[in-house]
Design brief:
alpha+beta, four-stranded antiparallel sheet, 19 strands, 33% helix, elongated
Length: 632
Protein backbone atom coordinates (compact mmCIF):
# COMPACT_ATOMS: atom_id res chain seq x y z
CA UNK A 1 0.00 0.00 0.00
CA UNK A 2 1.38 3.42 -1.00
CA UNK A 3 2.22 5.86 1.78
CA UNK A 4 -0.17 8.73 2.24
CA UNK A 5 1.07 12.00 0.73
CA UNK A 6 -0.51 15.30 1.74
CA UNK A 7 0.14 18.81 0.42
CA UNK A 8 -0.33 21.73 2.82
CA UNK A 9 -1.13 25.09 1.22
CA UNK A 10 -0.54 27.78 3.85
CA UNK A 11 -1.75 31.31 3.08
CA UNK A 12 -0.04 33.50 5.70
CA UNK A 13 -1.35 36.79 4.26
CA UNK A 14 -4.85 35.59 3.39
CA UNK A 15 -6.75 38.19 5.42
CA UNK A 16 -4.62 41.05 4.07
CA UNK A 17 -5.05 39.81 0.50
CA UNK A 18 -8.83 39.71 0.91
CA UNK A 19 -8.81 43.33 2.04
CA UNK A 20 -6.63 44.41 -0.90
CA UNK A 21 -8.97 42.66 -3.34
CA UNK A 22 -11.71 45.08 -2.30
CA UNK A 23 -9.69 48.04 -3.56
CA UNK A 24 -7.11 50.49 -2.20
CA UNK A 25 -6.67 50.12 1.56
CA UNK A 26 -6.14 53.88 1.93
CA UNK A 27 -6.44 57.03 -0.21
CA UNK A 28 -2.71 56.89 -0.93
CA UNK A 29 -2.77 53.13 -1.47
CA UNK A 30 0.59 52.62 0.33
CA UNK A 31 -0.39 52.62 4.00
CA UNK A 32 0.62 49.62 6.17
CA UNK A 33 -2.27 47.25 6.78
CA UNK A 34 -3.54 45.44 9.86
CA UNK A 35 -6.55 43.11 9.86
CA UNK A 36 -8.97 42.06 12.58
CA UNK A 37 -10.55 38.68 11.85
CA UNK A 38 -14.22 38.21 12.75
CA UNK A 39 -17.29 40.41 13.06
CA UNK A 40 -18.49 42.03 16.24
CA UNK A 41 -20.28 38.92 17.52
CA UNK A 42 -17.34 36.70 16.62
CA UNK A 43 -14.98 39.11 18.37
CA UNK A 44 -17.07 39.01 21.54
CA UNK A 45 -17.06 35.19 21.46
CA UNK A 46 -13.28 35.21 21.11
CA UNK A 47 -12.84 37.59 24.02
CA UNK A 48 -15.14 35.52 26.22
CA UNK A 49 -13.11 32.40 25.44
CA UNK A 50 -9.77 33.90 26.43
CA UNK A 51 -7.93 32.90 29.58
CA UNK A 52 -9.39 34.10 32.87
CA UNK A 53 -6.09 35.79 33.65
CA UNK A 54 -6.70 38.13 30.73
CA UNK A 55 -9.53 40.64 31.26
CA UNK A 56 -12.43 40.19 28.87
CA UNK A 57 -12.56 43.87 27.97
CA UNK A 58 -13.98 44.89 24.60
CA UNK A 59 -10.56 45.74 23.16
CA UNK A 60 -9.84 45.16 19.46
CA UNK A 61 -6.76 43.02 18.86
CA UNK A 62 -4.89 42.74 15.56
CA UNK A 63 -4.76 39.26 14.04
CA UNK A 64 -2.79 39.70 10.80
CA UNK A 65 -0.40 42.38 9.50
CA UNK A 66 1.23 42.81 6.11
CA UNK A 67 4.95 43.15 5.45
CA UNK A 68 4.83 46.96 5.46
CA UNK A 69 3.21 47.09 8.90
CA UNK A 70 5.66 44.49 10.21
CA UNK A 71 8.57 46.72 9.21
CA UNK A 72 7.11 49.44 11.39
CA UNK A 73 7.01 47.09 14.39
CA UNK A 74 3.32 46.12 14.32
CA UNK A 75 2.76 42.49 15.33
CA UNK A 76 -0.25 40.17 15.53
CA UNK A 77 -1.70 40.13 19.04
CA UNK A 78 -1.19 43.84 19.63
CA UNK A 79 -4.10 46.02 20.62
CA UNK A 80 -5.28 48.50 18.03
CA UNK A 81 -4.45 51.48 20.25
CA UNK A 82 -0.89 50.24 20.71
CA UNK A 83 -0.41 49.67 16.96
CA UNK A 84 -1.88 53.10 16.14
CA UNK A 85 0.60 54.68 18.55
CA UNK A 86 3.45 53.07 16.62
CA UNK A 87 2.14 53.91 13.13
CA UNK A 88 -0.15 56.91 12.80
CA UNK A 89 -1.18 56.09 9.21
CA UNK A 90 -1.90 52.41 9.90
CA UNK A 91 -4.95 51.16 7.93
CA UNK A 92 -7.09 48.79 10.00
CA UNK A 93 -9.74 46.63 8.34
CA UNK A 94 -11.95 43.75 9.38
CA UNK A 95 -12.44 40.35 7.68
CA UNK A 96 -15.13 37.91 8.78
CA UNK A 97 -14.72 34.18 9.19
CA UNK A 98 -17.25 33.71 6.38
CA UNK A 99 -14.90 35.51 4.00
CA UNK A 100 -12.00 33.37 5.22
CA UNK A 101 -14.04 30.23 4.67
CA UNK A 102 -15.02 31.33 1.17
CA UNK A 103 -11.42 32.12 0.22
CA UNK A 104 -10.15 28.77 1.53
CA UNK A 105 -12.94 27.06 -0.37
CA UNK A 106 -11.83 28.70 -3.60
CA UNK A 107 -8.27 27.48 -3.08
CA UNK A 108 -9.55 23.98 -2.28
CA UNK A 109 -11.67 23.98 -5.40
CA UNK A 110 -8.71 24.97 -7.58
CA UNK A 111 -6.48 22.39 -5.91
CA UNK A 112 -8.95 19.57 -6.60
CA UNK A 113 -7.76 19.53 -10.20
CA UNK A 114 -4.50 17.94 -8.99
CA UNK A 115 -5.65 15.61 -6.22
CA UNK A 116 -8.41 13.34 -5.03
CA UNK A 117 -9.49 15.09 -1.81
CA UNK A 118 -9.16 18.67 -0.61
CA UNK A 119 -9.97 19.94 2.88
CA UNK A 120 -10.08 23.26 4.72
CA UNK A 121 -10.47 21.59 8.13
CA UNK A 122 -9.12 18.44 9.72
CA UNK A 123 -11.04 15.73 11.53
CA UNK A 124 -10.14 14.04 14.78
CA UNK A 125 -8.17 10.85 15.06
CA UNK A 126 -10.58 7.94 14.86
CA UNK A 127 -13.50 10.13 13.71
CA UNK A 128 -15.26 9.31 10.41
CA UNK A 129 -14.59 11.74 7.55
CA UNK A 130 -18.19 12.29 6.56
CA UNK A 131 -20.03 15.40 5.46
CA UNK A 132 -21.88 15.59 8.76
CA UNK A 133 -18.71 15.73 10.80
CA UNK A 134 -17.58 18.87 12.55
CA UNK A 135 -15.74 20.20 9.52
CA UNK A 136 -18.79 19.87 7.32
CA UNK A 137 -20.92 22.25 9.36
CA UNK A 138 -22.28 25.36 7.69
CA UNK A 139 -20.03 28.41 7.60
CA UNK A 140 -22.29 30.50 9.79
CA UNK A 141 -22.46 27.78 12.43
CA UNK A 142 -18.68 27.50 12.63
CA UNK A 143 -18.07 31.20 13.19
CA UNK A 144 -18.41 31.14 16.97
CA UNK A 145 -16.51 27.86 17.25
CA UNK A 146 -13.68 29.22 15.14
CA UNK A 147 -13.51 32.46 17.11
CA UNK A 148 -13.27 30.60 20.42
CA UNK A 149 -10.69 28.16 19.04
CA UNK A 150 -8.54 30.95 17.62
CA UNK A 151 -8.62 32.70 20.98
CA UNK A 152 -7.57 29.59 22.89
CA UNK A 153 -4.64 28.46 20.81
CA UNK A 154 -2.48 29.68 17.96
CA UNK A 155 -2.32 26.09 16.75
CA UNK A 156 -4.87 23.30 16.66
CA UNK A 157 -7.87 24.35 14.58
CA UNK A 158 -6.64 27.90 14.15
CA UNK A 159 -5.39 30.08 12.62
CA UNK A 160 -7.47 29.33 9.54
CA UNK A 161 -5.02 29.78 6.70
CA UNK A 162 -4.39 26.25 5.38
CA UNK A 163 -5.83 24.03 2.66
CA UNK A 164 -4.82 20.36 2.46
CA UNK A 165 -4.76 18.22 -0.67
CA UNK A 166 -4.40 14.44 -0.77
CA UNK A 167 -2.13 13.57 -3.71
CA UNK A 168 -1.55 9.91 -2.87
CA UNK A 169 -0.83 8.12 -6.15
CA UNK A 170 -1.50 11.24 -8.25
CA UNK A 171 1.80 13.13 -8.44
CA UNK A 172 3.17 11.00 -11.29
CA UNK A 173 0.39 12.29 -13.54
CA UNK A 174 2.00 15.75 -13.66
CA UNK A 175 5.65 14.74 -13.60
CA UNK A 176 6.35 14.23 -9.91
CA UNK A 177 5.85 16.05 -6.62
CA UNK A 178 8.10 18.98 -7.53
CA UNK A 179 6.18 19.63 -10.73
CA UNK A 180 2.89 19.28 -8.87
CA UNK A 181 3.92 21.92 -6.32
CA UNK A 182 4.90 24.28 -9.13
CA UNK A 183 1.60 23.83 -10.91
CA UNK A 184 -0.35 24.20 -7.67
CA UNK A 185 1.52 27.38 -6.77
CA UNK A 186 0.61 28.93 -10.12
CA UNK A 187 -3.06 28.09 -9.64
CA UNK A 188 -3.14 29.64 -6.18
CA UNK A 189 -1.29 32.73 -7.43
CA UNK A 190 -3.96 33.16 -10.11
CA UNK A 191 -6.46 33.64 -7.27
CA UNK A 192 -4.37 36.51 -5.92
CA UNK A 193 -2.81 34.67 -2.94
CA UNK A 194 0.78 34.07 -1.87
CA UNK A 195 1.19 30.51 -0.65
CA UNK A 196 3.75 28.34 1.14
CA UNK A 197 3.64 24.70 0.05
CA UNK A 198 5.01 21.50 1.53
CA UNK A 199 4.47 17.74 1.16
CA UNK A 200 4.66 15.14 3.92
CA UNK A 201 3.02 11.91 5.09
CA UNK A 202 0.33 13.73 7.09
CA UNK A 203 -1.49 17.06 7.22
CA UNK A 204 0.10 18.28 10.48
CA UNK A 205 3.60 17.44 9.30
CA UNK A 206 3.03 19.16 5.95
CA UNK A 207 1.53 22.22 7.65
CA UNK A 208 4.50 22.55 10.00
CA UNK A 209 6.95 22.30 7.10
CA UNK A 210 5.00 24.89 5.09
CA UNK A 211 4.76 27.37 7.98
CA UNK A 212 8.24 27.06 9.45
CA UNK A 213 10.34 25.54 6.66
CA UNK A 214 13.42 27.14 5.11
CA UNK A 215 11.27 28.93 2.53
CA UNK A 216 9.00 30.52 5.15
CA UNK A 217 11.18 33.62 5.50
CA UNK A 218 10.62 34.44 1.83
CA UNK A 219 14.26 34.03 0.84
CA UNK A 220 15.00 33.93 -2.86
CA UNK A 221 15.70 30.54 -4.34
CA UNK A 222 14.25 28.59 -1.41
CA UNK A 223 12.39 25.52 -2.59
CA UNK A 224 9.24 24.13 -1.04
CA UNK A 225 10.14 21.34 1.43
CA UNK A 226 9.19 17.78 0.54
CA UNK A 227 9.56 15.18 3.27
CA UNK A 228 10.49 11.76 1.84
CA UNK A 229 8.01 8.98 2.61
CA UNK A 230 8.53 7.70 6.15
CA UNK A 231 10.94 10.54 7.03
CA UNK A 232 8.51 12.99 8.59
CA UNK A 233 10.26 13.06 11.98
CA UNK A 234 13.61 13.90 10.39
CA UNK A 235 12.00 16.57 8.19
CA UNK A 236 10.49 18.54 11.09
CA UNK A 237 13.56 18.10 13.31
CA UNK A 238 15.25 21.42 12.35
CA UNK A 239 12.00 23.37 12.84
CA UNK A 240 11.42 25.54 15.96
CA UNK A 241 9.32 24.09 18.77
CA UNK A 242 6.56 26.57 17.85
CA UNK A 243 5.91 24.32 14.83
CA UNK A 244 4.38 21.72 17.19
CA UNK A 245 0.72 21.98 18.32
CA UNK A 246 1.50 23.27 21.82
CA UNK A 247 0.22 26.28 23.77
CA UNK A 248 2.13 29.55 23.74
CA UNK A 249 3.05 29.15 27.40
CA UNK A 250 4.47 25.65 26.80
CA UNK A 251 6.51 26.80 23.80
CA UNK A 252 7.86 29.78 25.78
CA UNK A 253 8.82 27.49 28.69
CA UNK A 254 10.70 25.12 26.38
CA UNK A 255 12.61 28.00 24.78
CA UNK A 256 13.65 29.31 28.18
CA UNK A 257 15.00 25.84 28.95
CA UNK A 258 17.09 25.94 25.79
CA UNK A 259 14.92 23.52 23.80
CA UNK A 260 14.78 25.55 20.59
CA UNK A 261 14.15 22.94 17.91
CA UNK A 262 11.91 19.92 17.51
CA UNK A 263 14.91 17.60 17.35
CA UNK A 264 16.08 18.95 20.74
CA UNK A 265 12.72 18.03 22.22
CA UNK A 266 12.83 14.59 20.63
CA UNK A 267 16.11 13.78 22.41
CA UNK A 268 14.61 14.33 25.87
CA UNK A 269 13.11 11.44 27.87
CA UNK A 270 9.54 10.82 26.66
CA UNK A 271 8.00 10.45 30.09
CA UNK A 272 9.34 13.79 31.34
CA UNK A 273 8.47 15.57 28.09
CA UNK A 274 4.91 14.26 28.04
CA UNK A 275 4.21 15.77 31.47
CA UNK A 276 5.07 19.25 30.14
CA UNK A 277 3.21 19.26 26.84
CA UNK A 278 -0.30 19.98 28.09
CA UNK A 279 -3.58 18.71 26.63
CA UNK A 280 -2.10 18.05 23.15
CA UNK A 281 0.52 15.68 24.46
CA UNK A 282 -0.73 12.72 22.39
CA UNK A 283 -0.60 14.65 19.11
CA UNK A 284 2.89 16.01 19.83
CA UNK A 285 4.26 12.58 20.67
CA UNK A 286 2.81 11.16 17.45
CA UNK A 287 4.46 13.91 15.42
CA UNK A 288 7.82 13.41 17.17
CA UNK A 289 7.63 9.77 16.06
CA UNK A 290 6.81 10.81 12.46
CA UNK A 291 3.21 9.56 12.58
CA UNK A 292 0.32 11.79 11.51
CA UNK A 293 -2.92 9.80 11.03
CA UNK A 294 -5.30 12.79 11.26
CA UNK A 295 -7.99 12.43 8.55
CA UNK A 296 -9.07 15.11 6.10
CA UNK A 297 -12.67 16.35 6.05
CA UNK A 298 -13.48 16.50 2.31
CA UNK A 299 -14.48 19.90 1.00
CA UNK A 300 -17.82 19.84 -0.80
CA UNK A 301 -17.66 21.90 -3.99
CA UNK A 302 -20.74 24.14 -4.44
CA UNK A 303 -22.65 23.79 -7.68
CA UNK A 304 -22.93 27.54 -8.24
CA UNK A 305 -19.81 29.67 -8.18
CA UNK A 306 -20.22 32.81 -6.09
CA UNK A 307 -17.89 35.72 -5.47
CA UNK A 308 -18.69 38.60 -3.13
CA UNK A 309 -16.71 41.70 -2.19
CA UNK A 310 -17.77 44.22 0.45
CA UNK A 311 -16.32 47.74 0.46
CA UNK A 312 -15.23 49.53 3.61
CA UNK A 313 -15.83 52.83 1.80
CA UNK A 314 -18.67 53.31 -0.74
CA UNK A 315 -17.68 53.32 -4.40
CA UNK A 316 -19.32 55.56 -6.99
CA UNK A 317 -17.14 55.20 -10.11
CA UNK A 318 -17.47 52.50 -12.74
CA UNK A 319 -13.67 52.20 -12.88
CA UNK A 320 -13.51 51.01 -9.27
CA UNK A 321 -16.28 48.48 -9.88
CA UNK A 322 -14.50 47.19 -12.98
CA UNK A 323 -11.31 46.79 -10.96
CA UNK A 324 -13.18 44.60 -8.49
CA UNK A 325 -15.03 42.67 -11.22
CA UNK A 326 -11.73 41.95 -12.97
CA UNK A 327 -10.44 40.15 -9.90
CA UNK A 328 -13.74 38.35 -9.35
CA UNK A 329 -13.93 37.05 -12.93
CA UNK A 330 -10.28 35.96 -12.71
CA UNK A 331 -11.03 33.86 -9.63
CA UNK A 332 -14.17 32.43 -11.24
CA UNK A 333 -12.15 31.48 -14.33
CA UNK A 334 -9.57 29.68 -12.18
CA UNK A 335 -12.30 27.71 -10.42
CA UNK A 336 -13.98 26.82 -13.71
CA UNK A 337 -10.67 25.66 -15.18
CA UNK A 338 -10.08 23.36 -12.21
CA UNK A 339 -13.56 21.88 -12.68
CA UNK A 340 -13.25 21.56 -16.45
CA UNK A 341 -16.47 23.56 -16.79
CA UNK A 342 -17.77 26.84 -18.19
CA UNK A 343 -20.65 29.15 -17.30
CA UNK A 344 -23.48 30.43 -19.48
CA UNK A 345 -24.78 33.29 -17.31
CA UNK A 346 -23.33 35.87 -14.91
CA UNK A 347 -25.69 37.36 -12.33
CA UNK A 348 -24.53 40.64 -10.79
CA UNK A 349 -25.91 42.40 -7.71
CA UNK A 350 -24.40 45.78 -6.79
CA UNK A 351 -25.49 46.67 -3.26
CA UNK A 352 -26.31 50.34 -2.69
CA UNK A 353 -25.82 52.44 0.40
CA UNK A 354 -29.20 52.17 2.13
CA UNK A 355 -29.58 55.74 3.31
CA UNK A 356 -28.40 57.44 0.11
CA UNK A 357 -30.48 55.10 -2.06
CA UNK A 358 -33.64 55.91 -0.09
CA UNK A 359 -32.83 59.63 -0.21
CA UNK A 360 -32.25 59.74 -3.96
CA UNK A 361 -35.10 57.38 -4.86
CA UNK A 362 -37.56 58.58 -2.25
CA UNK A 363 -39.80 60.25 -4.82
CA UNK A 364 -39.82 57.18 -7.08
CA UNK A 365 -41.63 54.48 -5.19
CA UNK A 366 -41.60 52.05 -8.09
CA UNK A 367 -37.80 52.17 -8.30
CA UNK A 368 -37.47 51.68 -4.54
CA UNK A 369 -39.83 48.70 -4.62
CA UNK A 370 -37.82 47.16 -7.44
CA UNK A 371 -34.57 47.62 -5.55
CA UNK A 372 -35.67 46.38 -2.14
CA UNK A 373 -35.91 42.74 -3.16
CA UNK A 374 -33.41 41.36 -0.67
CA UNK A 375 -34.06 42.20 2.98
CA UNK A 376 -30.54 41.14 4.00
CA UNK A 377 -28.59 43.00 1.30
CA UNK A 378 -30.90 45.99 1.07
CA UNK A 379 -31.31 48.06 -2.11
CA UNK A 380 -29.18 46.87 -4.98
CA UNK A 381 -28.86 46.99 -8.74
CA UNK A 382 -29.32 43.56 -10.32
CA UNK A 383 -28.70 42.46 -13.87
CA UNK A 384 -27.43 39.39 -15.70
CA UNK A 385 -25.39 38.68 -18.81
CA UNK A 386 -26.10 35.59 -20.92
CA UNK A 387 -23.37 33.87 -22.91
CA UNK A 388 -24.36 32.46 -26.33
CA UNK A 389 -21.94 29.59 -25.59
CA UNK A 390 -20.62 28.70 -22.10
CA UNK A 391 -17.28 30.45 -21.54
CA UNK A 392 -14.54 30.00 -18.96
CA UNK A 393 -11.74 32.46 -19.81
CA UNK A 394 -11.34 35.44 -17.47
CA UNK A 395 -11.12 37.98 -20.30
CA UNK A 396 -14.17 36.54 -22.07
CA UNK A 397 -16.21 36.73 -18.86
CA UNK A 398 -15.17 40.33 -18.15
CA UNK A 399 -15.87 41.80 -21.59
CA UNK A 400 -19.70 41.54 -21.52
CA UNK A 401 -19.76 42.72 -17.91
CA UNK A 402 -17.72 45.77 -18.86
CA UNK A 403 -20.00 46.56 -21.81
CA UNK A 404 -23.06 46.25 -19.59
CA UNK A 405 -21.66 48.28 -16.71
CA UNK A 406 -20.54 51.15 -18.94
CA UNK A 407 -24.18 51.68 -19.97
CA UNK A 408 -25.53 51.68 -16.41
CA UNK A 409 -25.76 54.69 -14.12
CA UNK A 410 -25.53 53.98 -10.40
CA UNK A 411 -28.42 55.38 -8.35
CA UNK A 412 -26.31 55.50 -5.16
CA UNK A 413 -22.78 54.66 -3.96
CA UNK A 414 -22.02 50.93 -4.06
CA UNK A 415 -21.04 49.15 -0.86
CA UNK A 416 -20.52 45.66 -2.31
CA UNK A 417 -20.65 43.43 -5.38
CA UNK A 418 -22.08 39.91 -5.53
CA UNK A 419 -21.31 37.84 -8.65
CA UNK A 420 -22.81 34.40 -9.37
CA UNK A 421 -21.79 32.15 -12.28
CA UNK A 422 -24.76 29.96 -13.18
CA UNK A 423 -25.77 27.63 -16.00
CA UNK A 424 -22.62 25.60 -15.42
CA UNK A 425 -21.81 23.22 -18.27
CA UNK A 426 -18.91 21.07 -19.34
CA UNK A 427 -16.20 23.10 -21.05
CA UNK A 428 -15.47 22.37 -24.68
CA UNK A 429 -12.18 20.65 -25.41
CA UNK A 430 -10.56 21.64 -28.70
CA UNK A 431 -8.23 19.20 -30.38
CA UNK A 432 -4.73 20.48 -31.06
CA UNK A 433 -4.28 21.66 -34.63
CA UNK A 434 -0.89 20.90 -36.19
CA UNK A 435 -1.80 21.84 -39.76
CA UNK A 436 -1.47 25.62 -39.28
CA UNK A 437 1.16 27.82 -37.71
CA UNK A 438 -1.45 29.54 -35.56
CA UNK A 439 -4.57 27.91 -34.20
CA UNK A 440 -7.96 29.63 -34.13
CA UNK A 441 -9.45 30.42 -30.75
CA UNK A 442 -12.88 28.70 -30.70
CA UNK A 443 -14.16 31.14 -28.06
CA UNK A 444 -13.45 34.33 -30.03
CA UNK A 445 -16.85 34.46 -31.73
CA UNK A 446 -18.86 33.44 -28.60
CA UNK A 447 -17.05 36.11 -26.57
CA UNK A 448 -17.85 38.74 -29.21
CA UNK A 449 -21.50 37.67 -29.30
CA UNK A 450 -21.70 37.90 -25.51
CA UNK A 451 -20.25 41.42 -25.59
CA UNK A 452 -22.67 42.51 -28.33
CA UNK A 453 -25.62 41.00 -26.45
CA UNK A 454 -24.71 42.97 -23.34
CA UNK A 455 -24.26 46.20 -25.32
CA UNK A 456 -27.19 46.25 -27.77
CA UNK A 457 -29.49 43.59 -26.32
CA UNK A 458 -29.71 39.83 -26.67
CA UNK A 459 -32.83 40.11 -28.83
CA UNK A 460 -30.81 41.89 -31.55
CA UNK A 461 -28.01 39.34 -31.79
CA UNK A 462 -28.50 35.97 -33.44
CA UNK A 463 -28.27 34.01 -36.68
CA UNK A 464 -30.61 33.88 -39.65
CA UNK A 465 -32.63 30.71 -39.94
CA UNK A 466 -34.57 29.58 -42.99
CA UNK A 467 -38.27 29.09 -42.26
CA UNK A 468 -40.82 27.09 -44.22
CA UNK A 469 -43.18 29.85 -45.40
CA UNK A 470 -44.82 31.02 -48.64
CA UNK A 471 -44.38 34.77 -48.07
CA UNK A 472 -40.79 35.90 -48.96
CA UNK A 473 -40.53 38.19 -45.92
CA UNK A 474 -41.27 35.24 -43.61
CA UNK A 475 -38.74 32.83 -45.07
CA UNK A 476 -35.95 33.91 -42.73
CA UNK A 477 -35.92 34.91 -39.09
CA UNK A 478 -33.41 35.94 -36.43
CA UNK A 479 -32.97 33.32 -33.72
CA UNK A 480 -30.77 33.63 -30.60
CA UNK A 481 -27.41 31.92 -30.60
CA UNK A 482 -26.88 29.01 -28.23
CA UNK A 483 -24.65 25.99 -28.23
CA UNK A 484 -27.52 23.51 -28.17
CA UNK A 485 -29.50 25.38 -30.82
CA UNK A 486 -26.47 25.63 -33.10
CA UNK A 487 -25.81 21.92 -32.76
CA UNK A 488 -29.46 21.10 -33.47
CA UNK A 489 -29.53 23.39 -36.51
CA UNK A 490 -26.30 21.92 -37.86
CA UNK A 491 -27.67 18.39 -37.48
CA UNK A 492 -30.97 19.34 -39.11
CA UNK A 493 -29.16 21.08 -41.97
CA UNK A 494 -26.94 18.06 -42.52
CA UNK A 495 -29.97 15.76 -42.61
CA UNK A 496 -31.77 18.10 -45.02
CA UNK A 497 -28.77 18.25 -47.35
CA UNK A 498 -28.44 14.49 -47.34
CA UNK A 499 -32.15 14.06 -48.09
CA UNK A 500 -32.00 16.65 -50.87
CA UNK A 501 -29.01 14.94 -52.45
CA UNK A 502 -30.78 11.58 -52.38
CA UNK A 503 -33.94 13.07 -53.87
CA UNK A 504 -32.00 14.88 -56.59
CA UNK A 505 -30.12 11.70 -57.49
CA UNK A 506 -33.35 9.67 -57.70
CA UNK A 507 -35.14 12.28 -59.80
CA UNK A 508 -32.15 12.65 -62.10
CA UNK A 509 -31.92 8.93 -62.68
CA UNK A 510 -35.67 8.59 -63.32
CA UNK A 511 -36.35 11.66 -65.47
CA UNK A 512 -32.99 12.06 -67.20
CA UNK A 513 -31.63 15.36 -68.27
CA UNK A 514 -34.05 18.25 -68.67
CA UNK A 515 -33.71 21.38 -70.68
CA UNK A 516 -32.09 24.27 -68.91
CA UNK A 517 -34.65 26.62 -67.42
CA UNK A 518 -37.49 24.08 -67.18
CA UNK A 519 -39.17 23.97 -63.76
CA UNK A 520 -36.72 26.61 -62.51
CA UNK A 521 -37.57 27.99 -59.09
CA UNK A 522 -39.17 31.40 -58.85
CA UNK A 523 -36.69 34.28 -58.53
CA UNK A 524 -36.16 35.73 -55.09
CA UNK A 525 -35.40 39.32 -54.03
CA UNK A 526 -31.85 40.05 -52.90
CA UNK A 527 -32.90 42.62 -50.28
CA UNK A 528 -36.18 43.07 -48.45
CA UNK A 529 -37.32 46.30 -46.85
CA UNK A 530 -38.19 46.38 -43.16
CA UNK A 531 -41.60 47.86 -44.07
CA UNK A 532 -43.19 47.64 -47.57
CA UNK A 533 -43.65 51.03 -49.30
CA UNK A 534 -47.17 51.63 -50.70
CA UNK A 535 -47.14 52.50 -54.42
CA UNK A 536 -50.85 52.72 -55.19
CA UNK A 537 -52.15 51.15 -58.41
CA UNK A 538 -49.36 50.38 -60.84
CA UNK A 539 -48.96 49.41 -64.49
CA UNK A 540 -46.57 49.87 -67.36
CA UNK A 541 -45.62 53.54 -67.62
CA UNK A 542 -46.96 54.46 -64.18
CA UNK A 543 -45.11 57.01 -62.05
CA UNK A 544 -44.34 55.90 -58.49
CA UNK A 545 -42.76 57.73 -55.55
CA UNK A 546 -40.04 56.00 -53.52
CA UNK A 547 -38.22 57.84 -50.74
CA UNK A 548 -39.41 61.23 -52.04
CA UNK A 549 -38.15 60.48 -55.55
CA UNK A 550 -40.21 59.72 -58.66
CA UNK A 551 -39.63 56.77 -60.97
CA UNK A 552 -41.34 55.37 -64.04
CA UNK A 553 -42.18 51.70 -64.38
CA UNK A 554 -40.69 50.59 -67.70
CA UNK A 555 -42.07 47.06 -67.63
CA UNK A 556 -43.53 44.45 -65.31
CA UNK A 557 -42.87 40.70 -65.21
CA UNK A 558 -45.26 38.41 -63.35
CA UNK A 559 -43.47 36.00 -61.01
CA UNK A 560 -45.95 34.06 -58.91
CA UNK A 561 -49.25 34.15 -57.07
CA UNK A 562 -50.02 33.12 -53.53
CA UNK A 563 -53.66 32.69 -52.61
CA UNK A 564 -55.15 32.61 -49.09
CA UNK A 565 -51.85 32.08 -47.31
CA UNK A 566 -52.37 31.63 -43.56
CA UNK A 567 -56.12 31.44 -44.07
CA UNK A 568 -56.62 30.57 -40.40
CA UNK A 569 -55.48 34.05 -39.29
CA UNK A 570 -57.64 37.23 -39.33
CA UNK A 571 -55.54 38.62 -42.23
CA UNK A 572 -54.91 35.93 -44.87
CA UNK A 573 -52.59 37.00 -47.70
CA UNK A 574 -53.58 36.83 -51.41
CA UNK A 575 -50.90 38.44 -53.54
CA UNK A 576 -49.49 38.66 -57.05
CA UNK A 577 -45.69 39.08 -57.08
CA UNK A 578 -43.87 40.79 -59.96
CA UNK A 579 -40.53 42.25 -60.94
CA UNK A 580 -40.64 45.91 -61.98
CA UNK A 581 -37.96 47.83 -63.89
CA UNK A 582 -37.78 51.39 -62.55
CA UNK A 583 -36.10 54.07 -64.66
CA UNK A 584 -35.41 57.72 -64.17
CA UNK A 585 -36.12 58.64 -67.82
CA UNK A 586 -39.23 58.36 -69.96
CA UNK A 587 -40.53 54.83 -70.54
CA UNK A 588 -39.89 53.47 -74.01
CA UNK A 589 -42.67 54.27 -76.54
CA UNK A 590 -44.36 56.90 -74.31
CA UNK A 591 -44.11 60.63 -73.90
CA UNK A 592 -42.31 61.86 -70.87
CA UNK A 593 -44.49 63.16 -68.06
CA UNK A 594 -44.20 66.81 -67.10
CA UNK A 595 -42.23 66.04 -63.97
CA UNK A 596 -40.07 63.32 -65.45
CA UNK A 597 -37.00 65.53 -65.19
CA UNK A 598 -37.29 65.33 -61.40
CA UNK A 599 -36.70 61.57 -61.39
CA UNK A 600 -33.55 60.38 -59.69
CA UNK A 601 -31.96 56.92 -59.61
CA UNK A 602 -32.81 54.80 -56.57
CA UNK A 603 -30.30 54.34 -53.81
CA UNK A 604 -28.03 51.38 -53.19
CA UNK A 605 -25.96 51.79 -56.33
CA UNK A 606 -28.54 51.62 -59.15
CA UNK A 607 -27.41 52.91 -62.55
CA UNK A 608 -28.79 56.00 -64.30
CA UNK A 609 -30.08 54.25 -67.42
CA UNK A 610 -31.75 51.31 -65.67
CA UNK A 611 -32.39 52.56 -62.17
CA UNK A 612 -33.18 49.27 -60.58
CA UNK A 613 -35.13 46.05 -60.62
CA UNK A 614 -37.73 46.15 -57.85
CA UNK A 615 -39.68 43.37 -56.19
CA UNK A 616 -43.33 44.37 -55.73
CA UNK A 617 -46.56 42.66 -54.89
CA UNK A 618 -50.22 43.56 -55.47
CA UNK A 619 -52.78 42.88 -52.77
CA UNK A 620 -55.57 41.12 -54.66
CA UNK A 621 -58.15 42.21 -52.12
CA UNK A 622 -57.56 45.97 -52.61
CA UNK A 623 -55.54 46.18 -55.83
CA UNK A 624 -52.88 48.24 -54.08
CA UNK A 625 -49.21 47.64 -54.92
CA UNK A 626 -46.31 47.66 -52.47
CA UNK A 627 -42.55 47.86 -53.00
CA UNK A 628 -41.08 45.06 -50.89
CA UNK A 629 -37.44 44.86 -51.96
CA UNK A 630 -34.84 44.94 -54.69
CA UNK A 631 -33.48 42.29 -57.02
CA UNK A 632 -29.87 42.03 -58.15
Amino acid sequence: MAARRIVAIVLPQLACELVKQRGPVSPSGKAPLAVIIGGEEERRAALAARSEREPAAPVAVIDVVDDEARRYGVRPGQKVVEAAALVAHLAIHRVTFAEIDAALGRVAEVALGLGATAAIQLGEQGAPTRAGARGGAPRAGRAGERAASAARSPWGDGPYDTVWLDITGASHLVGGEEALLGDLGERVAALGHRARLAIADGPRLAQALARFGAHADGGAGAEAPIAPPGKGAQAIGPLPVQALPVEREVASFLVRLGVLRVEDLARLPRAEVAARLGPRMAEVMELLAGRDPVPLLPYEVPRLIEEEVLFDEPVESAESLLFVLRGMTSRIASRLAARGEACGRLNVAIAYDRSIARLRLGDREDDVAALLEDEERGPSLRFHVDMPVPLSDAGDLLRPLKAKLERIELAAPAVGVHLIASRIARARRVQLDLSRDRSVDPDSLPALLAELSAEIGAERVGVLEIADAHRPEARSRLVPVSDEAATARASAAARARAAAERTAAEQGAAAGERAEGDDAPAPEPARLLAQPIPLGRVGRGAIVAVDRHLYAIERLSFVMRIDAVEWWTPTPASRDYARAWLVSGAPSGRAAPARLGELRPPRDGASASSCGEAWIYVDRATGEAFLQGWCE
